[in-house]
């Protein structure tokens, strides 16, 4: 594999379909975008691993949403790792890259470096939120179960969408000749679109959770099982790369299933924070409330948890009782501060 082809497939999601088995899927490889997500914070290795897994899931799931929509993953638990949050911003136009960001909140004193990362989330839930820009966002929630975030995502699709889904993911620190150590990740998502999905009230899985046998039957079930058996043969080094192109990997795994690929989607690191957005979020507070937010040095400060951007504000320019404009000029008497449309 040449350097140019490596660059072409890094930070890319490639949709595909297996025509013989009527299974659709996506294959992704993250390199620079994942490194940018993680380098914003000095996470311990156990936290980095979970953020890497969540970012990869977000890329694979998010690629299916429409233009200008936003998809978010939220994992909350009562363990040392309290929260993992990732966002996927779909392209604003055809041909534009999608954007991903993510962060984690954790109690460093409670982390166990020898325990598995997933076990340190504790009891909680896995949620997928889709914001269409109008109305309330769609939200689907499933309990933390199965020993990994990818298993939780599989449960989510089975329970909430009645869609048998499989993820095979790999993520690790990689060292390439002439380069320093950095994170790489790759994964495959398979999903069956049953003609008449099952309507089982209670599944046959642990705790009554749905399994693919509760949704599929006959030839559909056989096709799904066959595609999964083929995916079982993939190796982590093939997923992470960079020595194997995504198209070559699809042919290696599924050549008997007649794979057909669609246009690839580029992915970049991106954050939507801005000074105006912070001001808008503070517009509901009175001058008295704003005074409680000021630092000892005088200004109000805010840090973006996703990208690390640092903002400083004159307290007099914040809230609905602001007396000066953002540029420091006096506000007209009676002028009201309103959030931007």
Structural summary, described in words:
- The chain is of the alpha+beta class and 341 residues long.
- It contains ten helices and 13 strands.
- The chain is elongated and about 70 Å long.
Element layout with pairings:
Layout: H1 3-9, E1 12-18, E2 23-30, H2 32-39, H3 45-62, E3 70-77, E4 81-89, E5 98-106, E6 124-131, E7 138-143, H4 149-161, E8 165-174, E9 182-192, H5 212-215, H6 218-231, H7 236-240, H8 246-254, E10 259-261, E11 265-269, H9 275-282, H10 287-291, E12 300-303, E13 310-313
Parallel strand pairs: 5-11
Antiparallel strand pairs: 1-2, 1-10, 1-11, 2-9, 3-4, 3-6, 4-5, 6-7, 8-9, 12-13
Keyword list:
alpha+beta, 341 residues, 13 strands, disordered N terminus, elongated, two-stranded antiparallel sheet, eleven-stranded mixed beta sheet
Radius of gyration: 23 Å
Mean pLDDT: 85
What's the total helix number?
A: 10
Could you spell the SSE succession in H and E letters? Answer: HEEHHEEEEEHEEHHHHEEHHEE
Give the CA-based shape.
elongated
Beta-strand share of residues: 25-35%
Work out the number of β strands. 13
Low-confidence residue ranges: 1-5
Measured as a percent range, the helix fraction is 25-40%
Could you give a quick summary of the protein structure above?
This protein has 341 residues and is an alpha+beta fold.
